[in-house]
Amino acid sequence: MIKTWNELPLRIKVCVVLLCVVLFTVLFADFLMPYDPDKTDLLHKTLSPAFMGGNAEHILGTDELGRDVLSRVMYGARISIGIALFGLLIGCGFGLILGLTAGYFGGWWDRVALMLINFQQSIPFILFVLVGLVIFGRSIPVLIVLMGIARWETYAKITRGLVLSLKKKQYVEAAKCYNASPLRILARYIFPGVRTYLIVLITLNFPLILLVETSLSFVGIGVQPPTATLGQMVGTGKNYLVMAPWISIAPAIMIVVVAYCIQHIGEHMRERFDVRLLEK
User: Fold this and answer.
1) What was the pLDDT predicted at 241?
2) What is the CB neighbour count within 10 angstroms for residue 210?
3) Confidence bin at 179 (pLDDT 50/70/90)
4) Alpha-carbon gap, residue 106 to 112, rounded angstroms
5) Can you tell me the mean pLDDT for 180-189?
6) Closest by alpha carbon to 246, among 56, 52, 6?
7) Residue 216: its pLDDT value, please?
8) What residues have CB less than 8 Å from 112, skipping those under 6 apart?
9) Contact indicator for 63, 40 with CB cutoff of 8 Å
10) Residue 109 and residue 100: Cα distance in Å, rounded?
11) For the whole model, what pTM was predicted?
12) Helix segments in the chain, DSSP class H
C-alpha cells in the first residue's frame, strides 16, 4: 500500500518538491528563460552572479561568451533530462518486451534472448556509444537511441525471471485453459506482477543514464555546441574555475540535485515495495 503524503519521510518530501520544481522549469523553459540561451554578448562576458555583487539582470551571471547562465541551465536541463528520459524508456521498452516473450514462450527464443543479454553485458557500453556516434553522428535523436542501449539487459533479465515464476501461477494456468491468447495473458495477468519491479528499476536507473549523458557531453562527444546541455556547460566551465566558477557550478548543482532526488525516491520505493531482485 502506498503511503500518503503526510506519512512520507521528510527527505522524500523535499526530493519530490525539488523534482517538481525542476520538471516545471524544464517543461516551461521557453517561457521562464530570461534570455536566449545561445545569444552571445562579448561586452558582458563572465559577469558575476547577482548574489556575488554582479548585475541583477543575470541572476547566475554569464559565461565566457556573455550568455546568460540561468537560461542555459534551464535549457540544458531540458536537453539532458529529455535525452536520459527518452533513452531510458527505449531501453526499458525493448528489455520489457524481450523479457516477457523470452520468459513466457521459452525454447529457442529464450536462448536467443539470453545470448543477447550476455553479449550486451560483455561489451563496454562506451564502445557502443563511440561506434554509434562515428557512424550516425552526434545529433540528439542518435544520443537518445544510444542511451536506450544502456542497461536494457537489466530490464530483460529481471522481467524474464519474474515471468518464469508468474507463468506457473494458477490464475495464468486457468487463463490458458480458457484459451486466452498469449498477448492477453502477458498484458492482463503477467505484466501487473512485473509492473512494480519495473517502476522501481526505472527510478533507480534514471540517475545512471543521466550521468552517462552528462559525462559524454562533458568530454565533448555528446550534443555539440551551441546547444546547451548540463554536462557540456560543466566541461566548458572547467577552464574558467578560477575566474568564473559559476559557469560550471550552476549546471553541476542541477545534475547533483536531480540525480540525488531520484535516487533517494527510488531507494525509498524499493524498500517500501520490498523489491529484492534489483540488487546491482
Assistant:
1) 86
2) 24
3) confident
4) 10
5) 87
6) 52
7) 84
8) 102
9) no
10) 11
11) 0.86
12) 10-27, 29-32, 69-105, 107-122, 125-136, 140-149, 152-166, 170-177, 182-184, 191-218, 230-237, 246-273
Q: Summarize pLDDT for 209-234 with one digit per residue, the tens.
A: 888 888 888 877 777 778 888 988 99
Higher per-residue confidence, 222 vs 239? 239
Question: Within a 10 A sphere around the Cβ of 279, how many other Cβ atoms?
Answer: 6
Q: At 223, is the secondary structure helix, strand, or coil?
A: coil
d(C-alpha 172, C-alpha 219), whole Å:
50
The band of 1, judged by pLDDT with boundaries at 50, 70 and 90, is very low
Closest-CA residue to 203 (of 275, 270, 148): 270
Is residue 278 within 8 A of residue 101, CB to CB? The reply is no
Cβ atoms within 10 Å, residue 120: 19
Which value, in Å, is the radius of gyration of the alpha carbons in the chain? 22
Residue type, 172: V
Handedness of CA 23, 25, 30, 35 (dihedral sign): negative
Residue 261: its pLDDT value, please? 92
